[in-house]
Amino acid sequence: MGDTHGTTLSIHADGKGVRTGPRPEPVLILALECGRPRAGSVRYRLSDLTVVNLGRGSERRAEKAGTELSIKVPDKWMSSKHARIEPSFGRWVLVDTESKNGSIVDGHTTKRAVLTDGSLIELGHTLFYFFERMPIEAEAPALLELTPNDADPGLVTLMPSWQSELLRIRQIASSEIPMLIEGESGTGKEVIARAIHSLSGRGGAFVPVNCGALPENLVESELFGYKKGAFSGAQQDHPGLVRAADGGTLFLDEIGDLPASSQAALLRVLQEKEVMPVGGTRAVAIDLRVVAATHRDLDEMVAEQQFRHDLFARLAGFRIMVPPLGERRGDLGILIGALHTRLFPAEHPGFDIDAARLLLRYPWPLNVRELEQALATAQVLAGNELVRAEHLPDTVRSGRPPGAPRPVVLSEMDQKVRDQVVAALREHQGNVSAVARALDKDRKQIQRWIKRFGLDPASYR
Q1: Rounded distance, CA 236 to CA 222, Å?
Q2: ∠66-56-54 over CA atoms, to 5°?
Q3: Per-residue pLDDT tens for 152-200?
Q4: Torsion-angle region of residue 364: left (phi > 0), alpha (psi -120 to 50) or beta?
Q5: Chain-centre distance for alpha carbon 404
């Protein structure tokens, strides 16, 4: 059978079922209010609109009249009629209307700008993302609002593709099926595992185990426990981490780092639902739900016989691939709000616009963990004052992730050429041939400039 996830069947008048699914459409996300970071984020669908009016209001609200949407934000730096977004010849454009402080798109003050996928819009001290082609189910709400106080913060998102995966996680969380969470380091796999345990309704404890941090000679004694006298230093019985999770959830983090010698023993525990302590003679029955996680490619490890295929089959009852933060830019505002709620005092005034801009433009290659560390640093440095750019790590201020090469200092002439190429790439969505035609240059010359200036055409699509 083919994969039908993310699609629905609709019945037409002729009685035939027609497969439909998510369709790409333009979306605006109110990502962050600098003075109210805990207010949450909102996603607005734009496909059936002819204009979106943006301005200051006494409270955040959205009102639709026909094909016109008006969005109000309680931001004193915004004007009451600040800007509008409207379709024009197949594209969407932002037009500054009667603003006092101007409108900024992707770091440039503008009166009129063609929006591209992922454009960052600054109106006053409020930041928006525009996405040109976000796949959304037809039945999705026209307006979706999330706040940091929503239950299970690890299971909320404004990104539809991740939202559909989270829905499946919620559906299966209360079952006994083992779950395998995969993804890059720092994406929040343990947060998701804890949310799964919370939704499971299991009365026992959530017990996290970092398989990569256990010394190889102690893995089995730490996991399965030991009897008094089993080895030198075993002065009393020790139940082990597996039995500590009896009736609850055992979270095996970095399961790909589990030594081969211990994989067989773990497999037996999962098959027999009982654990044999080191030095013991009688197995102890356990009621266990296992959630495992890894940043490694277990399929490849199984193929290369570095990981037991039978253990993999026991762990991968349901697989989840957590996307990197760079693929969830629309969630940055809600994540910043959730971390602000956890790290800062309730009366904290929020973020300076320059700091907020840096946070939303930085690529976050080390994912949510890097964002959390950046805000933890800012909390210490800013205290009860507004978070400013100087309170953020050097990597975020420079926009240069760890390990990235230092930028070349350009002459004034080279900088002008670079600005022209960047503007053309943005205008033509990274299409190098179109850029060459627009600048009346040979395509090879554009490619040479792209290489020289360290540009990535794909980032403008």
Answers
A1: 14
A2: 40
A3: 667 889 999 899 999 999 999 999 999 999 999 999 999 999 999 999 9
A4: left
A5: 21
Structural tokens at position 426: 């943005």
Q: Which residue in the block uniquely carries the two structure tokens 């024009």?
A: 88
Q: What is the pairing mode between strands 8-11 and 206-210?
A: unpaired
Count of other CB atoms within 10 angstroms of residue 354? 15
Six-digit token pair at 151?
Answer: 């239950």
Q: Which residues contact 10 (CB under 8 A, 6 or more apart)?
A: 17, 18, 20
Q: Mean pLDDT lowest for which of 24-33, 154-163, 230-239?
A: 230-239
Cα–Cα distances in angstroms (integers) from residue 107 to residues 306, 360, 380, in the given order: 48, 11, 28
Residue 196 vs residues 148, 253, 314, 320: alpha-carbon distances, Å:
18, 14, 18, 12
> In angstroms, what CA-CA distances link 46 with 233, 376, 427?
67, 36, 20
Residue 3 has pLDDT above 50, yes or no: no
Backbone φ and ψ of 343, nearest 5°: -100, -25
Q: Identify the weakest region by mean pLDDT among 37-41, 125-129, 237-241, 336-340.
A: 237-241
The answer, yes or no, to whether residue 15 has pLDDT greater than 90, is no
Asked whether 45 and 136 are in contact (CB, 8 A), the reply is yes
Question: Does the pLDDT of residue 47 top 80, yes or no?
Answer: yes
What are 60-88's pLDDT values in tens digits?
999 999 999 999 999 999 999 999 999 99
Is 334's pLDDT higher than 80?
yes
Report the run of H or E that residue 299 belongs to, with start and end: helix 298-303
Q: 302 and 309 in contact (C-beta within 8 Å)? A: yes
Averaged over 213-242, what is the pLDDT?
80
Spatial contact of 419 and 387, defined as CB atoms under 8 Å apart: no
424-427 LR contacts (CB < 8 Å, sep 24+) = 425/455, 425/457, 425/460, 426/106, 426/116, 426/460, 427/114, 427/116
| H helix runs in 320-363, sequence order | 332-343, 353-361
**Partners of 96 in the beta sheet?**
83
Q: How many other CB atoms sit within 10 Å of the CB of residue 190? A: 17
Share of the chain above pLDDT 70, in %: 92
Distances from the Cα of 195 to the Cαs of 89, 166, 199, 344, 360, in angstroms?
A: 45, 11, 6, 23, 26
Q: Tell me the pairing of strands 83-88 and 108-110.
A: unpaired
